[in-house]
Every structure is written in structure tokens, then in C-alpha cells.
Amino acid sequence: MNKKLVAALSGGAALVLALSGCGGGGGGNKKLDDWAKNVCDQMQPQVKKIQDANSSIATVQNEEDSKKIQQTDSAAFQANADAYKALATSVDKAGAPPVKDGDSSQRNAVKALNDLSGAYAGLKKRVDELNTSDKAKFAEGLKSIAGDIGKLSSKSDDALKKLQSGDVGKAMAKQPGCQRTSTSSTPTKK
Questions:
Q1: In which residue ranges is the amino acid composition biased (Polar residues) (predicted)?
Q2: Other beta carbons within 10 Å of 186
Q3: What's the pLDDT band for 155 if we cut at 50, 70, 90?
Q4: Distance of alpha carbon 10 from alpha carbon 50, whole angstroms
């Protein structure tokens, strides 16, 4: 049952990777490059926390012990909530990117990241409240949580894509802190 949760989380991980930029090249706007460097330097450790948290959930996808699944998922959801909050703070502190509609793009991205943080905090609360002594009810609860993670990812995707569109995306893609890391998202079986 935890496999659905892992699949849903991989959607969230794709969202973070999208936020952390891809591609390369782009103009030579010094102010924009400075803005991107500021954001990207703060982003990398948070993206790693999110990837690590999602990987920890993958490690228990074949686990039979409901209590262990619950503890692992709870810790991962808390780590995600903290990381998304830190990302929102980074984008907020960086100010608006020096481009057309930079203010609204920044506001929307900060809201989306804060919404993700709040949603993961809510998921942590829900997983903590699941009854681990009844495997069927526990599995049903995880299924419901997995469905909500899927909705969450797509809901916040638009604002984040808008933040990194055009010149902002090109500037972010040039920064080492925003370049995709080559971590494997394939869970290892125990």
C-alpha cells in the first residue's frame, strides 16, 4: 500500500526538481543572475532534504510493520513541511525577480511553497492519527493520503513554473544550486 504513497511523492519530487531548474544558457542580466544565485544557493539544501525524506518513504514501501511505516512517513512529511517552508522564506527574502511581473510571480511562488508546507504538516498529522493496529484501515488511510499528495503537487505546480519561466528560469538554470542533482529516485529493496 505504501507504494501508492511513494508514487504520489515522486510527483512532488518532480515538482521540486522543476523548481530547481533545468536547461542552460540565457542572457547576461547581472541583477537577475544575482537574484537567481541568491535563491538557488538557499534552495539546494532544502531540495536535498525533500529528496531524502521521499527516499525514506520509499525504503518502507514493502514494510509489513504499520507502526514503522507510520513513523517513517510522519518524519518524512515533517521534513518536507520544514523544507518547503524554508524554500518559501528563501524566495520571499530574495525579493521579486527583476523581470516583468516579477512581483506577482514571486508572491505566487511563495504562496505555493507555503501551501505545500502546510499541506505536508497536515499529512503528518493525518498519518500520525492512523490506526496501526488495523492493517486494512491503515492501508485505506495511506491510500487517501497518497491521493491528496497527488492533488497537492499539481495544484502548486503552476505558480512555481511561472516563477521560473522565461529569463528567470534561464538565470536559475545557470546556478549550481538550482541544477538537478543526479540522485536516483529508484528505491532500494531491503
A1: 178-190
A2: 9
A3: low
A4: 11
Q: How is 15-49 classified by DSSP, letter by letter?
A: HHHHHT---------HHHHHHHHHHHHHHHHHHHH
- Cα separation, 14 vs 23, whole angstroms: 15
DSSP assignment, residue 97?
-
Total domains in the chain come to: 1
Q: Residue 158 pLDDT more than 70?
A: no
Tell me phi and psi for residue 109, to 5 degrees: -65, -45
d(CA 112, CA 107): 9
Domain that holds residue 125: 2-178
Cell 527574502, located at residue: 93
Residue 86's H or E segment, with its range, is helix 66-94
Kindly report the CA angle at 178 between 74 and 31, in degrees rounded to 5?
130
Cell of 8: 504520489
Closest by CA position to 114, among listed 145, 155, 170, 63: 155
**Which helix (DSSP H) or strand (DSSP E) does residue 187 occupy?**
none
In 10 A of CB 140, how many CB atoms? Answer: 14
For residues 67-75, average pLDDT: 94
CATH number for the domain spanning 24: value is 1.20.120
pLDDT digits (tens, 9 = 90+) for 15-55: 555 554 443 444 558 888 888 888 888 888 888 898 898 88
* Domain annotation covers residue 183: no
* pTM to 2 decimal places: 0.79
